[in-house]
Write a structure and sequence with these properties.
Vacuolar protein sorting 55, transmembrane, 90 residues, Vps55/LEPROT
């Protein structure tokens, strides 16, 4: 669950670096997305690897993946809801 809480941090830090006038992303924005993808993938892959190596119980792995998915899904839904409202006012 700690990885789920850190997930939006790279996007939040690099999101204000902006994009060019044609809507293409800049390097820092892409770097933030890259760091976010690493955190998200490791949040789902690490419990599977630990369960496979019998460090944790497979049930704990499933619960960790479900919990991480819920946290990340909530963050995405919250971001989408507020970015959609901002675009309506422009």
């Amino acid at each position: 669950m700690a990885a789920g809480l850190r997930t939006p941090l790279p996007n939040a830090v690099f999101a204000h670096c902006g994009s060019d006038e044609y809507g293409e992303s800049s390097g820092p924005v892409d770097l933030g997305r890259f760091f976010t993808s690493i955190i998200v993938v490791s949040g789902f892959a690490l419990p599977i690897i630990l369960a496979h190596s019998e460090v944790i119980d497979p049930k704990a792995s499933v619960m960790s993946i479900i919990g991480g998915g819920l946290v990340y899904g909530t963050i995405l839904a919250y971001s989408a809801a507020f970015s959609q409202e901002d675009s309506d006012y422009e």
